[in-house]
Amino acid sequence: MIGRRRRHDDDTVDVRVVGGMVRGVRERGLLAWRGIPYAAAPVDELRFARPGAVVPWGGVRDASDFGAIAPQAIRNPLLHPPVAAITADEDCLTVNVHAPIWDDDASTPLPVMVFIHGGGYSAGSSRDFSGQGEGFVRDGRVVYVSFNYRLGALGYLDFSSYTTPERTFDSNLGLRDQLALLRWVRQNIGAFGGDPGNVTVFGASAGGNAVTTLMAVPSARGLFARAIAQSPPSNAVYAPGLAAQWAEEFVAILREAVDGRERKDVDRGGERTAAARAIRSAPQALLATASPTDLVAACAVLQMRTPDAYPGTFCLAPIVDGDLLPRHPMRAFRDGTVHRVPLIIGTNDREGAIFRGRVDILPRSAARIEALFARAPSGARAGMHAAYPGLPARRPAADFGGDYGFWFPSTRIADFHSRHAPAWSYRFDVAPRLLEMLGLDATHGVEMFALFDRTDVALARIMTALGGVEAYAAAGERMRRMWIRFAAAAPPDEDWPRYDERHRATLIIAAADRIELDPRRDRRRAWSRFLPTLAS
Q1: What pLDDT, on a 0 to 100 scale, did the predictor assign at position 274?
Q2: Has 444 been annotated as catalytic?
Q3: Which of 205, 234, 410, 425 is flagged as catalytic?
Q4: 351 classed as catalytic
Q5: Which end of the chain is less congested by CB atoms within 10 angstroms, N or C?
């Protein structure tokens, strides 16, 4: 029976969920259960398949530690707490639940906050600092849920064109994982003291894209009551034709890499592996037998090529497959066919400033900017130069790229959604002094350490080493308090008015918060002419 729970004298707590009994722990004044399967392991025949049902286990499953993270290439020690051994594995579909200490006499279930981690759909996991959400649980008495989903080629490239009678390659696998998780929450969260009818889904960056995309997934109806999208690249959802091109390019990269390595092994007297033999056959076999390491490496090559070959796009993204996602989310928001739940959406002051080096994915080089100008109506180009004086110099190019990827699509979603449901818009402007000196300012992702009350993380300590930590942490505390109020079915703040197209009231989170009407209006108007398909 789902929902039965039992405490032990050694500070462990057992809860029955779909699949069996899990044993969590009481630590740091909270209850925690980690690494619980919410779907079948997506391995072997389930690689590139939609998530399957949880496989039951016998006895009591230890849920004291996080599960394996999804296979990925980038792991920055400045962002992640030191752990003796972090395992990456295709068997990664696990969920974590953090909750306040139960009051046995309490009968009112708590609001639930489900966080979708970011990382460009190629990196990140629920064991990052944001995956624990302890500040939310302590400050707001909410049940906090985090989880892993498939990343990279295993989750966000579309190989459905390779489907055969013998093997199906499903589309939108990472998005399907997120949907499976929300169904797990609806079915199980009551056992942890949460209210399945009061779920807020929120995420940042790619996680924000997941939020706005889930709002356009018909089968997600009823799985969440509210949504928060932080710095979402909301327009990064693509047509099947383009996704098929990326899949074909990926297979060519993978084939070349695996074939080259296997030839070297044979030259050394080794034997050809199953993956090498598959190279000479169909791509279906190559995809099925390639190692996770090879899949990650080939995906990294495709990611590096995409910004120049296809300016303004991200190759790892949901697709409009006509099945799970029948319409582009931007169109669904415009027409009011998304789930009409209350929404908070916003971005940071200078989103594009951080995207340099190996994360140089935005249209901020002269060639990429020129490619976007070539696609824009000729009459809109002068207005864009006026909005970003000096383009394509470094600073205006960074702002152009960030506004293209994050800010302008977010303003359109706020406009569209406010016609049908409550919406609130914000901009996060607080930057520690070092970021200001480096010219990064309040760039993409900077709010996360403050929001999650983790200014103790190494990168956050570096960011605040020259001052500004008090104002930064205080802004995060105010933001967290508003998010918690919103999750409890209240307006996020009495002084934060609802957004509408007439006034476009936006909360500017700064040293002293303020409301601005239609901030950066000239830029918004320039983008409306430059990207008319998003403007109407």
Answers
A1: 61
A2: yes
A3: 205
A4: yes
A5: N
